[in-house]
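User: Predict the structure for this protein chain, please.
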Amino acid sequence: VDITAEHLRHEALVFVYRLLFCFYAEARGGELDILPITDDIYRLGYSLESLRDLELVPLTAETESGRYFHEHLRQLFKIIHLGFNPRPEPERQMELFDFKEDPDEKIFTIRPLTATLFDPQSTPLLNQADLSNLCLQQVIRLLSLSADEKKKSVGRVNYAELGINQL
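Assistant: Here is the predicted structure, written as structure tokens:
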């Protein structure tokens, strides 16, 4: 298969749209009920917001070439596409004799989002790539922070307040 600039451009746009979707869905939290950003396990372990917290953390020469950001995003995109529900199906609960459901235990779930945006087949080239921490930290920083020329300051973009045209 010939790799063309058009293929790469398309996949890069899909990747950026995935990030924008996650920023927006997490910022809107419970209102959209797509991503469980209020759940500590999701927020601290899986969310794009947890990577956003690392946008300004200085990387060492060793961590610049690491793949933490990319693996984190791969996992996030996978659970968005496939969904996530750790509870067994009711008919399988009987088979799992040692499974005792605690009604007070909170386990986050994500309904599958099977739109083409998160379908791995939408990004076959990027699926084979290993993007470095340095690269993805820069992407997340550029999508997360906005410079105010008048005040000479930098602030976080509030995706909850952005409209479709701004996105």
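The beta strands are 145-148, 153-156.
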